[in-house]
Amino acid sequence: MIAERLAGKRIAITGSTGFVGTALVERLLRAVPGCELVLLVRPSKRHDAAERVRREIFKNNCFDRLKRELADAGGETFDEMVARRVVAVRGDVGADGLGLGDGDRAIWASCDTIIHSAAAVSFDSPLDSAVEINLMGPVRIAETCHAMNIRPHLVSVSTCYVAGNRRGSAPEALVSEGHWDIGLDWRKEVKAARRLRGDIEALSRSSEQLAARREEARKELGAAGAPALANKTESLRESWVKAQLVEAGRARAASVGWPDAYAYTKALGEQALTEVKGDLAVNIVRPSIIESAWAEPFPGWIRGFRMAEPVILSYARGMLKEFPGVPEGIVDVVPVDLVVAAIITVAAVGPDAPYITQVASGSSNPLRYKVMVDNIRDWFTQHPLYDSEGQPIVVPEWIFPARGRVKEQLARAKKIATKTERVLQALPLRGKQASWAATLEEKKNEIDRAFEYVQLYGLYTECEAVYEVSQLLALWDSIDATDRQHFNFDPRSVQWPHYMHEIHLPSIVHHSRAKTTPGKNRIDRNARLRRSVLSPDRHVAAFDLENTLIASNVVESYSWLATRRLNTPERIRYVLRALAEAPTLQRIDRKDRSDFLRFFYRRYEDAPVAQIDEDSRELLSNLILAKSFPAGLRRVREHRALGHRTVLITGALDFVVEGLRPLFDEIVAAKMTVRPDGTYSGNMAVVPPTGETRAEALAEYCMAENLRLEDSVAYADSTSDLPLLEAVGFPVAVNPETRLAAIARKRGWLVENWEKASGAPKMLLPLGPLLSERERRRTFASGVPR
Amino acid sequence: MARPGFVLEVDKSTPPLLFWRGEGFSLEKLPAGRSRVIYPPEPLEAIKDVDGAILEALLNPIDSEPLPALLFPGMKLTIAFDDVSLPLPKMERPDNRQRVIEAVLDLAAAAGVDDVHLIAALGLHRRMHEYELRHALGDRIYDAFHGRGQLYQHDAEDLDNLEVVGTTDQGEVLEINKRAAESDLLVYVNINSVAMDGGWKSVCTGLASYRSLSHHHNPTTLENTKSLMGHRDHSALHQSVWRLGKVLRDSGPRIFQIETTLNTDMFPSPFDFINKREWEWTAKDRAIYLGTTKSLKRTPIKMARKIFHGMQGPHRMTSVQAGETSAVHEVTLQHVYRQQLVEVQGQTDILTMGIPFVCPYNPDGVMNPVLVMCMGLGYLFNMYRNKPLVREGGVIIMTHPTYKDFNPVHHPSYIDFYEQVLADTTNPAEMSRKWEQQFAEDEWYRHLYRTGNAYHGVHPFYAWYWGAHGLQHAGKVIIVGGEPAVVRRLGFTPASTMDDAFEIASDVVGRHPTISHMHVPALLVADVK
Known about the structure:
Shape of chain A: elongated
CATH superfamily of the domain at 529-778 in chain A: HAD superfamily/HAD-like
Distance between the termini of chain A: 98 Å
Shape of chain B: globular
Helix content of chain B: 25-40%
Strand content of chain B: 15-25%
Strand order of the largest sheet of chain A: 3-2-1-4-5-7-10
Radius of gyration of chain A: 33 Å
CATH class of the domain at 529-778 in chain A: Alpha Beta
Distance between the termini of chain B: 26 Å
Helix content of chain A: 40-55%
CATH architecture of the domain at 529-778 in chain A: 3-Layer(aba) Sandwich
Number of helices of chain A: 30
Mean pLDDT of chain B: 93
Number of strands of chain B: 20
Largest sheet of chain B: 9 strands, mixed
Mean pLDDT of chain A: 83
Strand content of chain A: 5-15%
CATH topology of the domain at 529-778 in chain A: Rossmann fold
Radius of gyration of chain B: 22 Å
Oligomer: heterodimer
Largest interface: A-B, 27 and 32 residues
Number of strands of chain A: 19
């Protein structure tokens, strides 16, 4: 009967790119052959509505069954059928008038039924966006109908959790009409939420807040240059605003009796819809926690990561050792195909259906928390996930702790991790140790996530409300056997152990792409990245110098040159003076690299060019080569052998790196101006290449030589080189400091750990070799660098 | 009177024997009844009046007019001298080179010669550091000539300053330093530590170009060099060099060869025990041995290296002769053999040798794994006349820590050779075919060789080829105490103790092999009958 009743109808659907929406589109296309669909889709940044429908809906494996059935039948192809029956219209439930264009308004107006399933389902949506979508969404749909003067049948999808934090039975009735209603005015809530967005936006732009964001950005990136810092600061500001609004949502919801902003806005949405619907025929369907499909389109079908999956997977990965919950409590889960069937049935029955229908399992076929947990544990004991070393992960025993305890533990773990991280970041770590520090950051993120799960989902596993389904069962009783066969929404039909073991868990593990086979991964990621870096398709390789190719710096090369012609007492005085100055120099360097270079290179004032040139020749053997990373120099040569151009970009002075010239096609280095009397002035000839100017230097070189930055490789060691690394297609972090190691890990960059040759001559201080007294007297020029 | 070298048959009363292990030593017990130890002759009596002997050699040369007769005003005089690879460890000052060159310069000055150039005959070795030149020549010569650009180092890649002298009947091109080729007289000052050096090899390698060197420094020649230290007719290398020498004599500049030999008094006094026979160790020797090895174990390796490379040996001069190259060299060889030759009866299944901290290619630097191979199979294995101490297919056991340490200043191409070439092949012929050219013509290595203090890019190949005959001859090579991964990279077998090494060797030579131990580094040439 259902298929017949909906035949010839035009059904509009919002939220069709979501989990329920996709299943709904599939089921209607497959099981209700006579209907047409109008999908309201918001264009994304890249794709318009029709393209999103094609990519995000019809490419999903949800449609595999339908495609196969159509192919087997041999008539109309899937694409032809979609073209005939489906129209995508551009719109947005968050915009007034649904953001419909003129042409689309006509299409919208021609619909007989509207199924509103668009929602901000995330439990941690910012308050204002939850309000705009969950609360104002249904209101806008009703108002648009009134404005267009049309009277379609509206089926609005809500959630059982509108019942809020309560114990005992939750009936299929409006919360605002129940015993416990506190009489909230939804219009005031909307206004307050909108105002809050403005307030927090304004606050985020206050000078203290901006300073705080800038400081955070600097901590994360170090001296990465103004553009990179600005970019980071702004994105930190945006996430700060979001976090504030999320927190505000949680706080507001908690203050008025809901577990989170989602349930709170949904509840008010129901209330608002009821108030504004007027003579519009409206039915509300409230599912509980929707999980993978029981049978349709195939058992285990799921889209996106839902609520329980991250928690289950964190547990299976051994990240989440404990999760709060009441052992005998009910976890109200319902497979998506049951929800979809119920929605379609309500749409088919029309206004005669109950005003509110709950699709839940808790009251008729409860899944106890302990049973679920035991099932999960059993299953992962039999089918463990494997860690990166190929070892099976043993799942911990579940002890049903109270939420407070788990939170406390996590908070403690996080505190330790944060402190350790801070210490590690402050240490001058490089290379392998830094990567190790970066894994700590990953651990911290895991704790963060676990903390969030507990915060968000704990309320659901601890929920002691029982959702009544008498209207749903009455609806079930009213339909005939054929409909029951095609549109099963009877929660009693789900056998939980079978569902967990055979359907849900295999499905989410498959979905998560977690490692399910023993043994180490064959393909070494670094080897693969290295191959792509050393591919003949690359054509430029840019290298930083200090700590990328040599373990030395401008101060050392200066010291070497400055002491080259000093005798022992003079050397001692030099070393003492240098030590006394070190803190100042370090401070300037931390603040701004180019200021530091400018300041430091003043020391070369009055140095005779000829003498420096002569001494620099020895610098190659004595300092640069002795402190070089042989693997790094080999890499430069490998690039050359492949025909790549090699570019050295360094803040070091040109005469210091002169000895490296045969390795590079181009050297971009700092240069000092020379006075007419043949001495250095101590002033820079051009801006020294640091931070973003390095990226610019490389970009200019590529432009001039007609080469592509996307096909270039850059090697650098610190976050101050981020602009350079980000500018190229193939960044390589060499002996990265902790911050860069973390960034490289996150972004999947190649990391190389190059070391000095272990047989290198050891130098306690970077001083030039002592000249014999006779030689010194002979060559001592009046203008040694000061 | 110095006692001659001799062969000790090891019996139950033989004390443990001294083995070098890089920057340290160990005492190893060899199986009684089937082992023998070859001890070199004790250091010969040295010349008392060295300067007098030098002057005497210059004034009464062999098959040549006296040096003063060859000098005249306005002439171009070039003095070439052996580089830092000789002697080992470095000689206490004054170095024999300084003594000889000062004598030559005095005669030149007396003859009114003022166009004098001094050239370090590096071949493809690294340029010497200033302190090394000062050590070899003395400050007086260095300061007088260096500032004026008349003291410099040979550059086998400086195409503008090389000149082709001629070609042998086998097509070998002799190309040498232009200044030397154009001189009215080329004086070559040798230090003849081993029988392999000197003679025509001095000019034909020390002052030659890469192109010219590659005629004899290649796997085929070195596999057919069955006697580097013995008879010239068994050495393909020396045959080639002597052919080039003929070209040099016929078409090259006039040459005045000066060769000097040393006794084996190689180590300063606290290390006397190295040169002594173990059963003759005094209580003091034993105490010093114990003290040294114990404290070396606690010393950081870099410090230990500094100590060892800072060592200076007495190296007393035993002879000096000058004149016509071939004739002078024959006399020199007699003096070298007098000091080094030990008669040994027959070959054994196993040859054991301790590898010291230094070989000719790492003065003042670390002995990298490639050089461990070169020292063991290239130098020590080749210290024989007639036939090797170990039978063909026998086992060579060396003791050395074989760490993966390289000096990046001196040996940049060795690092890449180890990482790239040895990872691919240890076969000399194969690496020559696949890799040699790439390293030899590498712009960066050439730059470092010419301007820095690096061995030529192709040098690690030569170091490896030096061991080609040994590689071919030995059935198995075992390194005791080396880092296993590094030893395997060399294509050898690692063992943790000498007993393990004998156990491993039993696969090849059975359970009761005969063993020869070369008591080095006091240099010896085993005259195997």
